[in-house]
Design brief:
mainly alpha; 2 helices; transmembrane; transmembrane helix; membrane
């Protein structure tokens, strides 16, 4: 139960403003998506 409470308090605190960790997570996820997108499209074109 304690873990759930910590997660909830972290989520509530995160709603006020973006933290550096949130920005780094978003940048990392988007960089992976944008990097893999052309590869996936190229693969689909080659297979199709």
């Amino acid at each position: 139960m304690n873990n759930h409470n910590e997660l909830a308090s972290h989520y509530d605190a995160g709603q006020q403003a973006f933290t550096t960790e949130d920005i780094l997570w978003a940048a990392g996820i988007w960089s992976v998506i944008l990097t893999l997108s052309p590869v996936i499209v190229f693969y689909m074109l080659m297979v199709a």
